[in-house]
Amino acid sequence: MVDLKLHSLYVGPDQMMPVASILAAAMGFLLVFWNKLLGLIRKIFHLAPPPEPPETTSSTAPLPSTTAPAKPAAPDEKSKHS
User: How many CA atoms lie within 13 A of 52 on its CB side?
Assistant: First the structure.
């Protein structure tokens, strides 16, 4: 005789695929909007904002040039004959 209680507890892959898909979608949604979610939680519970990076004293210094140095000018014809 088949025990129906024990048979009803069987969970096969065909029942687990929709559950796994829903869990994966929920986790993906949380990962995409994680920063917004933490900001909302901080605002609701009046928690301190995350620490800001310290300002450097050289923030007003000019940035190094990212362009290649200029090529030296080619000698003109007059200087070759002199």
Answer: 3
Per-residue pLDDT reduced to its tens digit, 16-30: 999 999 999 999 999
Please list, in sequence order, all residues whose beta carbon lies within 8 angstroms of the beta carbon of residue 30, skipping any fewer than 6 positions away.
37
Task: Tell me the C-alpha distance between 81 and 66, whole Å.
Answer: 38
Whole-angstrom Cα Rg for the chain? 34
- Give the pLDDT confidence of 47-73 residue by residue, as tens digits: 877 678 777 765 565 666 666 666 666
How far apart are alpha carbons 75 and 13 in whole angstroms?
79
> How far is C-alpha 43 from the geometric centre of its chain's CA atoms?
22
Q: What's the number of CA atoms in the CB half-sphere (13 Å) around residue 40?
A: 6
Instruction: Tell me the C-alpha distance between 73 and 79, whole Å.
Output: 12
Domain ranges (residues) in the chain? 23-49
pLDDT given at position 27: 96
